[in-house]
Amino acid sequence: MEAILTVTNLTKKFGFLTAVKDLSFTIEKGNVYGILGPNGSGKSTTLGIVLNVVNPSGGRFSWFNGRLTTHQALKKVGAIIERPNFYPYMTAIQNLKLVCKIKEVPNDKIEEKLELVGLLERKNSKFSTYSLGMKQRLAIASALLNDPEILILDEPTNGLDPQGIHQIREIIKKIASQGTTILLASHLLDEVEKVCSHVVILRKGEKLYSGRVEDMLASYGFFELKSDQTEALLDFLEKHASFGTVKHENGLIKVILKEEMDAKTLNQHLFEKGIVLSHLVKRKESLEEQFLTLTNNTQKQA
Amino acid sequence: MLRLLQIEFIKLWNNRASKILIISYFTLLLCMALLAAIKFDIGPVKFHIADQGVFNFPYIWHLNTWIAGGLKLFFAIVIVSMMANEYSNKTIKQNLIDGLSKKEFIASKFLTVFTFSLISTLFVFLVSLVLGLIYSDYTEISIILSGLEYLVAYFFKLLGFFSFCLFLGILVKRSAFALGFLIVWFAIENLALRFLVWWLAGSEASATFMKYLPLESMSNLIKEPVSRFKAVQSVVAQMGEEFNKDYNVHFHEILIVLCWTAIFIYLSYALLKRRDL
């Protein structure tokens, strides 16, 4: 697998504040990555550094295994950072022509990409007349002009209305389905969950986790149980080696699994013990719950 | 190189304000020719500028480059805003992300400034040549070609001044403030520094010192030509005074301006490199 971007021990200090701390990760071809973290966790700073607009205080990064210098590599990258930045007095076409000139690619993809993001009818309108959603879509079109090896998006749905958010996500999915590597920074968990296969989680500039989304916590999920014989059930769960914490909330018993077990097996066990369930659900934590667990754990340790 | 120029051209030419200012600037340069049309014809007093010998070669090179030099202030607006706008639109960030290196970014601005200086010089050359051929008393090739060093000086004067404007644009990041800073700097050079050195080391040291300051060294490249004008000189001579002013362009003066140009471009690059966007 070819590494598109390798980040090694990256550090960025703004005065006393350490925005990124000793961060290392690798982006491989063909995956959709998410950088997840609350506001101010260093996502944009990290992207700024690898995109050559922020100077790192320490550490290294290399594009395409160091085969290309950063500014040559950036011509093979499509990136949008925070807000779409274009020349307000120029039309969509004029702005995109300029980007083609900078990226040293021919102009013939402009119409195709405008079509992809649904801006073809407005191609001759000035950028300043666009709505935020349209600006963001133009930015995506511009990032795609060179058919990039990797598309970097920094909070692409920030500040958009639900319809705009939906449009952007559809576009991202379409691009991902064509096999383009994507790196998506977001503080919205469900966004990352919906789109990404891999995730890097940051908090206060430090990496908490990086890897596949489903391996994020060695999690076997949990059961939600309900029974008339509550006492007997609790007793059974607490003595069984497969179960971790047991919580009794609003009449529902929530028990976290320490090893793999399916609902059928549990039901059978309980039935043999003479405990009859009125409610049995096996669930996996959502990314949000996992994320909160992860950030809480580290907070306690610190 | 051509690519960098094209990039800058797209940015400038699609901006209506810049386009109007650029066109007006070159129109104004052309309008220098209208000086020739100045005619007073009030009864007994007949005055026609063209008849006063101001368009004689090689004097015309000096006069026209000096007048055209004044117009550079007008063009400073275009130069400063073409740099500062990149900051206010945040397009500089996008340019770099799209794969323009910081060196290329500065190079594209400098090449543009270089091109404008070259075109301006060419304009002044052509306008003066035509005016001279029409009105000059001497049109021998050797005389026409003498005094062309004023055009060289004019070119470096523009290049130095525009590089200063670029630097201010990148330093201050806002066009209006950068232009304000330009005026403040002019005051610092001409008031604060001039009199400080005067006070510390006397008038002669002050005059020498001034020659090394950026704006002063640029304006010093082409000295005022009015007192060289023969009508003025004859008046002065009648009053029993004598002029011994050196009007020539000196190589070391061009060198000083060239040094400032290099310093400003380098500082712009260093600033861009160091700054987080």
Automatic annotation (TrEMBL), chain A:
InterPro entries on file: AAA+_ATPase, ABC_transporter-like_ATP-bd, ABC_transporter-like_CS, P-loop_NTPase
Transmembrane segments: none
UniProt cross-references to PROSITE patterns, sorted A to Z: ABC_TRANSPORTER_1, ABC_TRANSPORTER_2
Keyword field contains Nucleotide-binding: yes
Keywords per UniProt: ATP-binding, Nucleotide-binding, Transport
One Pfam entry name: ABC_tran
SUPFAM superfamilies noted in UniProt: P-loop containing nucleoside triphosphate hydrolases (SSF52540)
GO MF, one annotated term: ATP hydrolysis activity
Residue span(s) of domain ABC transporter: 5-229
Family according to the record: Belongs to the ABC transporter superfamily.
Protein name from the UniProt record: ABC transporter ATP-binding protein
TrEMBL record, chain B:
PANTHER family (alphabetical): INTEGRAL MEMBRANE PROTEIN-RELATED, MEMBRANE PROTEIN
Regions that span the bilayer: 20-40, 60-84, 110-134, 154-172, 179-201, 254-272
GO molecular function: ABC-type transporter activity
GO cellular component entries: plasma membrane
Protein name (database record): ABC transporter permease
Keyword annotations: Membrane, Transmembrane, Transmembrane helix
Highest taxon of source: Bacteria
Species the sequence originates in: Arenibacter certesii
